[in-house]
Amino acid sequence: MKKTLIGLTAAALVATPALAISWRTELFSRLDTDTNGSVSITELEQTGCRVNKKLFAYADADRDTGLSKVEFFKNRELFSRCK
Fold first, then answer.
1. Nearest Cα to 66, choosing from 31, 19, 15?
2. How do residues 59-70 score in pLDDT, each as one tens digit?
3. How many C-beta atoms surround the C-beta of residue 10 within 10 A?
4. Which backbone phi and psi does 37 adopt, to 5 degrees?
5. Which CATH class name applies to 2-78?
6. First vs last C-alpha separation in the chain
7. For residues 54 and 5, which has the higher predicted lDDT (pLDDT)?
8. Which terminus of the chain has fewer CB atoms gathered within 10 Å of its CB, N or C?
């Protein structure tokens, strides 16, 4: 019973949305090297992402030449090998 409870607690912690948010925050912080709250093509390329400029423009819904955290994660599959 004790092992089952520990296992269920561990599973609940792994599935907690707060943990999902933290990896996103960490990744976005690493990409946003100038800490202005958006990620530019240059920042993505400098951190190892392969960027297609047309796909970047598509992902940049508000056309401010940078991707907000929401824009980036909504379209993350458009960028290759982002670390």
1. 31
2. 999 999 999 999
3. 10
4. 90, 0
5. mainly alpha
6. 40
7. 54
8. N
